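Fold this complex.
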Amino acid sequence: MIKAVPKPLEEVLDLVKDFHKVLIAGCDGCVTVCEAGGMKEAKVLASALRLYFTQEGRAAQVDEVSLTRQCEKEYLAELADRLDAYDAVVSLACGCGVQYLAEMYSHKIIYPGVNTCFLGVNEERGLYSERCQACGHCILADTGGICPIARCSKRMLNGPCGGSEKGKCEINPEIPCGWELIYERLKTLGQLDRFEKPVDPKDWSSSRDGGPRKIVREDLRI
Amino acid sequence: MQYPPNVRIIEVPCTGKVDLVHLLMAFEYGADGVMVVGCMAGDCHYSAGNLYARKRVQRGKEILDRVGLGGDRLEMYNLSSGMGGRFAEIVREITEKVRELGPSPVRVATGKAMRPIAEVTP
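Structure:
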């Protein structure tokens, strides 16, 4: 799932300090799971902003709402009748949600309230780590279910490199070497022969190298 | 056991139930200070409720510092149910500390600083 962290409160305060009516829009999707931008976080941010405005002696209105998903028009449409009442909206959704909200309500000032980080897993509450870079052409079948694009710092297809030491990556001793993980996993699976044939260069056109991407599923479209 | 009467006690099953938004809303409703009193560390009946509460209180203090109220107005203590005397002592201490800090900037800004909290809260 998409992982995000709340923006520092000072940054959000700086964005909205000149407005009088602000809506904090949470998202019940991925950002709720990583506790960065759901209803709970929207309430906390709205409360913090109300305290700030009130102690400044300003009569500002800060409300909160949370949409099922901000990456879908049906849910964004729920705000259609409400947005005129606000000067600005702080969206706590991921970058996709913030942009789709801005796209749908082009006349409204929309600010991001979180920093969107990566596609990752919940190792435990409050500990999330990256697993996928959405390169558009999955090679996990060849690498023992461990992705060298996401887990190797150099995105090598034929690793490990010379910077791998005692199972750790040279860029940070806390980062496990992705290729060490792949080696150990393939050893467990009895598939070490995978290392005997080099992998051809990857077609990166399905990744960001091909520009902004789009999926067209004719089987689903009406 | 006697302690200052200007403290309003809100009972919860466990301090783990106390969310960050509850702490902030107490200040929105006009509290000059808030103390969270949980069980002793390691004695939580729900295993870690008081540890979660301490982290939320810490985050609450940071938020209060940033929005201009001051994190000193929020504190957490760990007591057992048999420590009534110490509870009264802490309430006296925190009441004195909040009195020194003065009315919450929220109440000052809204002109409600001279009225008791009970009249201010909706």
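Chain A touches chain B through 16 residues (CB under 8 Å).
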